[in-house]
Amino acid sequence: MSNPATNVNSVNYLEYTGKYKGIFAWIFSTDHKRIGLMYLWGMALFFIVGISLGFVMKSEMLNPGKDLIDAQTYNAIFTLHGVIMIFLVIIPGIPAVFGNFFLPIQIGAKDVSFPRLNLLSWWLFLIGGILAVMSIFLPGGPIDAGWTFYVPYALRSSTNVSVALLAAFILGFSSILTGLNFITTVHRLRAPGMTFFRMPLFIWSLYSTAWIQVIATPVVGITIVLVIIERLFSIGIFDPALGGDPILFQHLFWIYSHPAVYIMILPAMGIVSEIIPTFARRTIFGYKAIAFSSLAIAFIGYFVWAHHMFTTGISDFSRMVFSFLTFIVAIPSGVKIFNWVATMYKGSIDARTPFLFVMMFIFLFSIGGLTGLVLGNLATDVHVHDTYFVVAHFHYVMFGGTIMILFAGLHYWFPKMFGRMYNERIANISVFIIFIGFNMLYFTMFILGYMGMPRRYWDYLPEYQPLHIISTIGSYILITGLLLMIYNLVKGYYSGKKAEQNPWGGVTLEWSVPSPPPLENFEVIPTVEHEPYHFETHEEVK
Amino acid sequence: MSEITTSTDILTEEVTHEHSHVHRDDFGAKIGMWLFLFTELLLFGGLFILYMAYRVQYSEAFHFAAKELNIGLGTLNTIVLLTSSLTMALSIAALQRHKKQLSLFLLGSTIFMALLFMVNKYFEWSAKFSHGIFPGSADLMDRDKGEIVFFGMYYAMTGLHGLHVIIGVILLSFMYVFVKRGSVNPDNYIKLENSGLYWHLVDLIWIFLFPLFYLLH
């Protein structure tokens, strides 16, 4: 009876050949590990496109007036940069890549609950991505409405708004299906003994995220559909000329898009909770507090959306309520930060590359989080609303938070996913370069925004130029660091030395299977007997 | 010799059985379906919130515009859809009791009533169109803004609901074929049950749409 199972598991998932060959063995594969990698390739591609757009924007901002591109092209580029980075990179981001790859392994399962649905999610992601990129080239021109698609401009713009919106709708559907799949998997496929409070914290964060995906995404889905219908048939729901109310669009948009911020950051926080115990060689401090703070963030995140709308003329009372609730979100986030730091206390810290990324994350995310309080405060928000201050804030939390942890996860799980190691020395150098470039690029934006530089402007007054120059140079340094990091990983993938089963001495289940994992992950489904970060029983790996 | 063959046969059977057992999780499939239905509720929830906001803003115009809808056709469609939900539930019950032919008949009736609903809808919409009431029409644009929004909401909500009915027809037609071929059978009917859940949702949405548009005036 064990024979057929051994045959399937005698090869790793990268080498396994099923009934399809070549590329079809990937794009028709329902293996959660292959799907995770396909998301990774797709996202890497879109990420590079997004960076290139950012590069063009920063180069344009080097001098006042026209350098490279005209104002309309600039509008199109910041819109595409936003659409690609948000909908195609950060939102699918960590759940789609590492969630798909490690959720089943960390809970001791062979795959997710609905493998075919999982493949469908990836196909929808691909189709959505292609549509988004196509909207650049189709007649009508690339969209210029900003990634938020605010009406009435999104109704009046003659560019391909409908195509881009359709892309966003399809991507939303993909996100919903992934969320639905993960919730069911966590409920149904945990290994014997893997109770909810024995799940790794990454799983807790994915579980919370999946609920946000399922609950919030349909609302933006219908909003997007209504804007498309409005553009095609002028039904008047959002068009003020026909009796509609554009503020209602903003409400519905942010009812999704604010929780979506937590779709982006929660899984990153989960990875941090994995990496810190591994490299501090201590169990996590406050396991339940971290687990529940994920749920708390997911829950409170629903009641803060109108803080994006403080200057739209909504009533003072609702502004005060939303401002107060916004401050409350800082509490569970703070709980996490303090627990991570407490975990490191008296640990024997081994500062390897993933850990360095996490340290960078804590630094950058703290700046991003604290400046978020400036924006959540009514009096200061009116001053800095729609300035570079906001741009700096969300790049600190989204890029400095989510994307840095995406890189951390990539460096942490790279040996497990590909069975090879990258050059750690070069990786550490790239961390350093990224850190310098990042802060030059975005910290100057806080100052610029405070001085009054509005966001999304193509031109600016001469007194802003010195800071713009620092920012642009910072962006070049950042891109250099990113390219070095990507080069190092690609090189590691092709010619790195073979990775051991457990290079970091981690104790969660993924480190108990070979690198790369076999097709069905486990020879025998493991029985779990203790909490996830139980280093006492693993002293020998030291 | 024959003994060995038998034991291998048993082994292979056990393996395939175990294999199919691993991939079959009816309870899990139901969790997935309920989550999906939850997202559908939220999808329509966005529309219901908009309806509520505009009803408050334009209560008078909504009051008058609602009088122009055809209560007779609306009521007929409500009856048709409610009955189709009944036949859907009965079809599952019949299959569970090994009455395949009855189950197919009831499933067929559900599909028939879904189509009947769409035919009614067609007549209703085209009557409105012939009166010049459709999005962007010159007649409608001359009216009060509240009425424009009312008919905008009417077309958006009943249109999206109609789309769900059409998807339901396609889904149930597949189920009809599956039951006929026997891949959906008294031992494995989770697909039919989940399709039934979807169909009840479509019915449920209509139960809210009907009073909001046809009866409230």
List keywords for this structure.
heterodimer, A: 542 residues, mainly alpha, Cytochrome C Oxidase, Chain A, 17 helices, disordered N terminus, B: 217 residues, Four Helix Bundle (Hemerythrin (Met), subunit A), elongated
Question: How many individual β-strands of chain A?
Answer: 0
- In the predicted model, the low-confidence regions of chain A spanning at least 5 consecutive residues are 1-6
Rg for CA atoms of chain A? 23 Å
CATH architecture level-2 label of chain A: Up-down Bundle
Helix content of chain A: 55-70%
* Number of alpha- plus pi-helical segments of chain A: 17
The CATH class label of chain A is Mainly Alpha
Sheet with the most strands, sense and barrel status of chain A = none
**Highest CATH level, the class of chain B:** Mainly Alpha
* CATH-defined superfamily of chain A: Cytochrome c oxidase-like, subunit I domain
How are the SSEs placed, and which strands pair?
The complex is a heterodimer of chains A (542) and B (217).
Chain A: H1 2-9, H2 24-27, H3 32-60, H4 71-90, H5 93-106, H6 115-137, H7 153-156, H8 161-188, H9 201-233, H10 246-280, H11 287-300, H12 316-344, H13 353-376, H14 378-384, H15 388-418, H16 424-451, H17 465-495
Helix pairs in contact in A: 3-4, 3-5, 3-6, 3-17, 4-6, 5-8, 5-9, 5-15, 6-8, 8-9, 9-10, 9-11, 10-11, 10-12, 10-15, 11-12, 12-13, 13-15, 13-16, 15-16, 16-17
Chain B: H1 2-23, H2 26-57, H3 59-66, H4 71-96, H5 100-130, H6 138-141, H7 145-181, H8 190-215
Helix pairs in contact in B: 2-7, 2-8, 3-7, 4-5, 4-8, 5-7, 7-8
